[in-house]
Amino acid sequence: MMYGCPIVGTEEAFEGYDIEYDKIGARCNIPKEFIDAIGQLRNSKGRLLNSAKYSRITFLEKYDTNVLKNKMTDFLRNVKYPT
User: Which residue segment(s) compose the domain that 66 sits in?
Assistant: First the structure.
């Protein structure tokens, strides 16, 4: 995601990521799905570029180190400690 590349992976590969599979590339679980998804990206420059852009933007908005640091800082500031 950081490098702005489309991603084609299994459901398990995307576990824990808050993404839209069709926008980032494709979610595939059998060989034919991989072949079809890669073919679609290969044959559509627009889709390829859009998937690459979505990948990079999603990384920057949700998974960049500074974003995660800020989320963790906010979380820790809002923890209610027992008195």
Answer: 7-77
Q: What is the pLDDT of residues 30-58, one digit of tens each?
A: 999 999 999 999 999 999 999 999 999 99
Residue 16 has pLDDT above 90, yes or no: yes
- Distance from C-alpha of 59 to C-alpha of 10, rounded to nearest angstrom: 19
Which ranges in 1-83 belong to alpha helices (H)?
A: 21-24, 31-43, 45-58, 65-77
Look at residue 2 and tell me if it is in a domain.
Answer: no
15 within a domain of the structure (yes/no): yes
Look at the chain and report how many structural domains it folds into: 1
Report yes or no on 49 lying in a domain.
yes
Cβ neighbours of residue 27 closer than 8 Å, sequence gap 6 or more:
9, 10, 11, 14, 21
